[in-house]
Amino acid sequence: MPEKKIRWFIIARHGETDFNAERRVQGTLNDPILTHQGLSQAAALGKYISKRGAITRTFCSPLQRCRQTYATIAEICSDNSNLLPEPTILENLKEIELKEWQGRLRNEIMIEDKTNWEIFKSNPCDLRLENGSFAPVLDCFERAISNWDVIRTDAASNSADVIFIMCHGAIGQCMLLQALGLDKKEYGKSRRYALDICECFEIEFESDLSEYSSRWRKIDTSQEVSKWQSTYSSHLIASTLATNR
Asked: Domain residues of the chain, as ranges?
């Protein structure tokens, strides 16, 4: 039986990788590794997470860059006597799949596949790769829905109050949009919902019965913690932005 219990979900993005530094598309590739800067960013996020209180359930993307970030955060938490459990590796937490773009420099794609790149930047949901057969953003959004089903069911089953999720920028943004009840067409339309390197979203659900979250905030460890924003106000802002486009 679902509980009427508040739960908090922390969705974090990995630290800077060598691919990020080179402005190379990563997607679902497992080759990228954290730079020294990325490890420092992960340590800073770890300090914040270590002060967040007991986290009893954790999930992580299978990709190396997320595992590295998680390991660094877990080490910092351990040093501060706030142990993180071993994460559940969830396949659908991997990054957006960008097919033939993966491993290539962004500047190269802008020139050699200009039409598709412009679609990706203006109307991401309309992008089709692999000879028009694959829709990266739509696939990512569907995986976000699946992730919430798995993670929220697990949280309820294990009576977990705070759940930590280590993933990537695009899948993290899709999960936020889903939690706010916003349409997938909002993907990539506003920096409000972008998950930058080693940032995290904190998302609150008032009950296991709630379809959508009650409020959320974005955490950037290099700045002051942002204020909580209600899901209702986010709908109003999204509607205003859509009207003005």
From this structure: 7-244
- Reading the block at residue 3, the tokens are 């509980």
Per-run averaged pLDDT (10 residues), the chain, 245 residues = 81 98 98 98 95 92 98 94 93 98 98 98 98 98 98 95 97 98 95 95 96 95 85 72 60
Question: Residue 102: its pLDDT value, please?
Answer: 98
Sign of torsion, CA 127 129 131 133? Answer: negative
Read off the tokens for 58: 């954790």
Can you tell me which residue has the tokens 């080693």? 198
Amino acid 7: pLDDT: 97
Q: Are 163 and 54 in contact (CB under 8 A)?
A: no
Three-state DSSP at 109 gives helix
Given the DSSP bridges, would you call strands 200-205 and 215-219 parallel, antiparallel or unpaired? antiparallel
Which residues have C-beta within 8 Å of that of residue 231, sequence separation ≥ 6?
179, 180, 181, 212, 213, 214, 215, 216
CATH placement of domain 7-244: 3.40.50.1240
For the chain, the straight-line distance linking the first and the last C-alpha, in angstroms and rounded, comes to: 43
Helix, strand, coil distribution of the chain in percent, nearest 5: 45, 15, 40
Distance CA 173, CA 184 (A): 10
The residues, any chain, with a CB within 8 Å of residue 5's CB and separated by 6 or more, are 159, 161, 207, 208
Q: At 24, is the secondary structure helix, strand, or coil?
A: strand
| Global model pTM greater than 0.90 | yes
